[in-house]
Write a structure and sequence with these properties.
single chain, eight-stranded antiparallel barrel, 18 strands, mainly beta, Lipocalin, 2 domains, disordered N terminus
Length: 251
């Protein structure tokens, strides 16, 4: 149970920025804290490359932090910003304290270690060591939900039996292309360009899994996916057979 609480608290910090505790000014003014709004060396845009909670790796997708010289701070995942707050960096103790809407992070400051390629943040959360590894970035990293937006044309699709003794069926819907909108709506078209289905798409935050929820009957289909800037592979593995669809980016 303690492990589940630790994991939940850390995910809330990274993805939602849900911070509780004493007021920001109270913490910053503590004689023992001596926190300062210092522009160096933590100021800049940073990409998270690894997160460990105890012995578990819990690296979020396309996570970034941007710390400005005026003490303001934002963070998000891909093009989605989900934190807007401030920070204090103590150059003497090398501690980084964060706050949101005037409320200081309840788990306290991170110990900051500058490295050749970036920096690491470490602190204890409920007696569990949390370590965040970051590198300096020129631009915000793209997440799968950013890359997938646009039109994709089918190159091939097939169904294969998971067992040799079970012949695959061919009762799956053929379509020519699919459009993923920035508003999380999708549209499917047949080979003649006629729209045949609409719905909502959603990509899981911590896995390569996409849901297609059709407007017709509110049916829900999930796919494991592999994605690059120009190709998309979808796989739906059932109990008896597996559907694979390969798509290329269209115009």
């Amino acid at each position: 149970m303690k492990r589940r609480i630790n994991v939940l608290s850390f995910i809330l910090f990274l993805l939602l920025g849900a911070l509780k505790g004493q007021s920001y000014s109270d913490i910053a003014n503590l004689k023992t804290g001596n926190y300062e709004n210092s522009p160096a060396p933590v100021v800049g845009l940073w990409e998270v490359t690894e997160v460990t909670v105890g012995e578990e790796k819990l690296t979020p997708t396309a996570k970034w932090f941007q710390l400005l010289a005026d003490g303001s701070m934002t963070s998000g995942n891909g093009w989605v910003q989900n934190f807007d707050g401030s920070f204090n960096y103590d150059s003497g103790t090398k501690k980084l304290l964060q706050a949101s809407q005037g409320i200081v992070d309840e788990f306290g400051a991170f110990n900051v270690t500058m490295t050749k390629n970036g920096m690491t943040w470490e602190r204890l959360e409920m007696e569990t060591l949390v370590k965040v590894t970051l590198i300096k970035a020129d631009k915000k990293p793209l997440a799968p939900w950013d890359i997938i937006v646009g039109n994709w044309a089918i190159e091939s699709q097939n169904i294969n039996s998971n067992n040799d003794d079970h012949p695959p069926t061919d009762d799956f819907l053929e379509f020519g292309s699919i459009y993923f909108g920035w508003d999380r709506r999708f549209k499917k078209y047949d080979e003649n360009g006629k729209r045949i289905e609409t719905g909502i798409w959603h990509i899981e935050a911590h896995s390569n899994w996409i849901w297609l929820i059709s407007d017709k009957g509110n049916t829900k289909t999930g796919f494991d996916f592999k994605l690059s800037s120009q190709s998309l592979e979808l796989e739906d593995k059932g109990e008896l057979q597996t559907l694979k669809i390969k798509l290329l980016r269209g115009n």
